Amino acid sequence: MENHVMNTYNRFDIAIESGHGPWVVDTDGQEYLDFISGIAVNCLGHAAPEIQKTLTEQSSKVIHISNLFWSQPQIDLANALAEKSGLDRVFFNNSGTEANETALKIARKYGYTKNPGKKTKIICFTDSFHGRSMGALAVTGQEKYREPFRPLIGEVYDAKFNDLESVRELMDEDVCAVILEAVQGESGILPAEQAFMEGIRELCDQYDALMICDEVQCGMGRSGELFAYQTYGVLPDICTTAKALGAGFPIGAVMANDRAAQYFVPGDHGCTFGGNPLACACGNTVMRELFENGLLEHVREMGAYLFSALDGLKEKYPEKINLVRGKGLLLGVQMKEGLKSPVIAAAQSHKLLLAGAGNEVVRFLPPLNITEEEIDEAVSRFEAAVSEL
Fold first, then answer.
1. How much is the pLDDT for 1?
2. Does the N-terminal or the C-terminal CB of the chain have fewer CB atoms within 10 Å?
């Protein structure tokens, strides 16, 4: 069969045909337990009844109207995100990369109004990942992604994650923003330290810079709170999210306080599909599940349960597993050198789907409504894979 898809992904040799909950079925009829969840997207599982109902009802009314008009789903979702995030204004787009691009533009506009041409510096962190467009790539602290596409946007400086002194050395009055992930995802599920998060907030206040939290992967309930920064008791000026916000339907969002958002005016930014009624209706369904149907508490309980089970495997197989870390249902198992890819392949042979990350880490990203029984099954299959190595 001819395949004209551009070669930008190293794909598993599996073609998915259908799914239900945490399970998927390939075109050969093989069933897999999916602990990738579309890379932290399918927060309610595959073919979630709540999302099916939302898609059917909203698509029968209106799908797209452009941002020349108002829609109630967009207003409702903006209100919910503002209230639950502690921020004031919301801009909608289609993806995490777009959300981070928007955040960078807000930061540069903020700096422009404070000191035109001077307050332009942005600090990011080594091993971070914020997207693959030219702006988001510039603040992605991994040279293997940046190098082929230089020159990127300028005035970006790399500090060391969880090293506050490295940030302090770069901070001055010309910094307009510091962007970070509360839990670095692609580099290996590495949570920020409490003192580090508090220190970034203090430095941003001291130098009149914006603190941007990229919650594209770690947000929308995956940490056990709506946003991972809330587990630290620290409030950023800007928060970006996407992935699980639509439970599979593409949507991204940027939340900002009035301090930052007041300078973003008509003509500064736009997004044709951003905030369309269908996407926002899906977002509203996710928010209801999180806050009205007890899903956040469930994540905290299942996250602790899964962590304990994986930590038990670390104790049982110390020659193969280094450590387990993460928050909520965003967990990483760091394997010994050279074992990440083999254990992912072995898990697939046991019909368990897992994703890798940097630093020999295997990611566990089940749906947020995963059950104890399904976790037990996944851990059993993972142990079988580990034992075969």
1. 56
2. N
